C-alpha cells in the first residue's frame, strides 16, 4: 500500500505494519473475530486475508479466552501470533492467559520458552459506541510483570511501534486509541523501520511545564499546549508510548527544566497510571518540584453511555485548568 | 403451544475400552504394540512414578518440598499417554502428571525442583518444546490448541510429518470454558491434538456427579464435533490403545479427539488436603481393588513374565535411581535471587535496572 501524498491514518498505519510483517516473516499469523473477509470491525486488517491467505489471517470462533490462550501455545512453538480483540472491553476473559501465562512463560521456564505475542485492542472512548466499547483500563495491565503495554498516538508511531511490538521477543499488549484511528493523516513510509519500545517521545518542547499524556488524549494535550503557548507559556509534551516498562527518565529530564508537571489520561483516576508516574516523580525528583503533580483524568465512574462521554473525557479546558493549578502553585513558606 | 415444525433427533454412543480386567486377566487379545518388552517397560515406569510420588509426599511432610499433588492410582494414564507421544510431539500437562513427565524424559530432579519451589525444574532438558506443567485449571487445553495450530502450520510450510499436541487434565477441568473453547476450535480448525481427561472421580472434594450432569465426560466432545471414547484408566493397555489411535488419527490430518480415562485418586488431592473429610474409607478401600500397578503385575505373572525375584531386582534398581536423583537435586547450587529478573523479559528493561541492583546488593549483603 503506497502512502498517498497526504499520508495515511493511524488505523491504516496499523494495517500497513501488519502487512509488512506478514510479508516478511512467515512465522507471523494474525487472528481474531471478523478480521478476515470483513477486515475487522475497524478495518485494521482490511485486505490482509486476501493477500496472505486464510491460513495466516484467520477468523476465529467467538471466544476471547480462546483467542488469548491459543496465542500462548502458538508462540511457545516459534510462531509470532498477533491476536485482535474486537474492543478492549472484551479482553477480560483473556486476562487469565495474558497474566498467568503469556507474561510469565519466559520466567517460569527459565528462558526455555517465551511468548512473542502481540495482543491488539482498540481502546478508549469518544466514538459514541455502546456500553463496554469505550474502556481504558490500561493501568490494570501495566501492573503485570513480564508484559509490555504500548499505546501509539500518531500514524507514524502506530506503524513503528507495532513493528517493534511484533518483533519483540516478549508479549505486548498494543492498545490502539480508536478515537484517533482516523483523526489525522501523516505520510508513513512503508520501509519496515521500527521505533524503539520503552522510550518516551517528546512531542513538543518548552521550559515552563511538563505535560504527560498518551493515546487519544495527546490530541487535547497538544491543543492545550498550543493555547498555553499563545499565552506565552511553553510546555514539554511527553508521550511515554510504552506505558510499561515506563521511561520515567525522559519525564524527570523534562522536570529538571520545568519543575511542574501535569499528567493527562482518560482512564479513571484511582490507581490509574497517573498515580504511578506521580509516585515515581516524587521518588526521583521531589526536590525538583515547585508544585504538586497534577492529574487530569477520567472520573472514578463507570464510563458513561455516549451522551455523557464528552463530560467524562478530559478535554482541553480541564487540561488547561490542571496546567494553571500547576503553574500558579506557590509554596506556603509558613513564616 | 406451537408444535415444532422440524424435529431433529440426535443419538450417540460412547465406546468403553478395556483389555485387562480388575484381576488383570485379558478380556480380549492384546493389541500388537503390547509386547512383553512394552508391558514390562510400562510396569517399570508406573512403579517408578509411584516411588517418586511416595518420596515426594515424604519430602513434603518433612518440609523439604512445598505442596505436592500425588499421582497415586493414576500411573497408568500418565505412562501410557506419554508413551504414545513421539519426541517431536508436544505435551501440555496439568499438575498431576509425575508418571507422564517421567515417561516423557523429564528428570526426577526436575520434578523435585518444581515442587521444591525452583523454576529451573520447568526447564525440561529432554522435552524442550513441551509446555511447563500448568496449575490454573484447563488453561493448558487452549495452549495445546495453539501449539497444535503451530504444528499444523509448520507441517504445511515444510511438508514434514504432522506432529500432535496433547493436553492432559482432570475431569473437574472439563467444567471450565477453556475446555469447551479449546475443543470447539480443535473441531472447527481440525487441529492435530488429543485431550486426555483423567477422570479420577474427585476434583478436590467435589465428586464427579456434582461436577457435571453428563453421564460421561467423553460425550462433551460430541458437541464440539470431535470423536471421543472412554477407557479403563487403570488398564495401561486400554489407555495406550486409545491415545495411540487418537494420535494416529491426528497425524493423518483427521483432527482432534478426546480420551476419557476412568480412574480413581487413591491419594489426597495434594499434600495440603485431607480427603477423609469428604469421602468414605470404604470407597477408597474398594478403589484399591482395581489399581493399575497390581493389575498389570497380575497379568505379567500369569504370563510367566514376572516373579518375586524380578520384583526384588527392580526394587533395588529403582531405589538406586531415586537415590541418585535425590543427591543430584540436593547438591544443586541454589539459583541466584536475581534470576527472578533474568528471565522476566528477553532483555531487562532499563526501568528495572534499579530494582535489579537493589536485589543483587541485598543478596551480596546476605552473603557477606
Ligand atoms: C482456575 C483454578 N481454579 C481453582 C483451582 C484450585 N484447584 C486446584 S486443583 C482443583 C481441582 C481440579 O480437579 P480435576 O480437574 O478433576 O483434577 P484432579 O486434581 O482431580 O486430578 C482445584 C479446584 C485452580 N488450580 N485453578
UniProtKB/TrEMBL annotation, chain A:
Q: Which InterPro entries match?
A: THDP-binding (IPR029061), Transketo_C/PFOR_II (IPR009014), Transketolase-like_Pyr-bd (IPR005475), Transketolase_C (IPR033248)
**What UniProt keywords apply to this chain's record, in alphabetical order?**
Oxidoreductase, Thiamine pyrophosphate
Q: Where is the Transketolase-like pyrimidine-binding domain?
A: 8-183
Pfam (any one) = Transket_pyr
For this protein, the parts annotated as crossing the membrane are: none
Q: Which cofactor does it need?
A: thiamine diphosphate
Q: Which PANTHER family does the entry mention?
A: PYRUVATE DEHYDROGENASE E1 COMPONENT BETA SUBUNIT, PYRUVATE DEHYDROGENASE E1 COMPONENT SUBUNIT BETA
Protein name as it appears in the record: Alpha-ketoacid dehydrogenase subunit beta
This protein's species is Microbulbifer salipaludis
Which lineage is the organism of this entry classified under, starting from the top rank? Bacteria, Pseudomonadati, Pseudomonadota, Gammaproteobacteria, Cellvibrionales
UniProtKB/TrEMBL annotation, chain B:
Record domain Dehydrogenase E1 component: where = 44-330
Look up the domain of life of the source: Bacteria
What EC number(s) has UniProt assigned to this enzyme?
1.2.4.1
Co-factor(s): thiamine diphosphate
Q: Which UniProt keywords apply?
A: Oxidoreductase, Pyruvate, Thiamine pyrophosphate
Q: What is this enzyme's class at the first EC digit?
A: oxidoreductase
Q: Which reaction does it catalyse?
A: N(6)-[(R)-lipoyl]-L-lysyl-[protein] + pyruvate + H(+) = N(6)-[(R)-S(8)-acetyldihydrolipoyl]-L-lysyl-[protein] + CO2
Q: How does it assemble?
A: Heterodimer of an alpha and a beta chain.
> Which NCBIfam families does the record associate with it?
PDH_E1_alph_x
The record describes the protein's role as: The pyruvate dehydrogenase complex catalyzes the overall conversion of pyruvate to acetyl-CoA and CO(2). It contains multiple copies of three enzymatic components: pyruvate dehydrogenase (E1), dihydrolipoamide acetyltransferase (E2) and lipoamide dehydrogenase (E3).
Name the record gives this protein = Pyruvate dehydrogenase E1 component subunit alpha
This chain's source organism reads Microbulbifer salipaludis
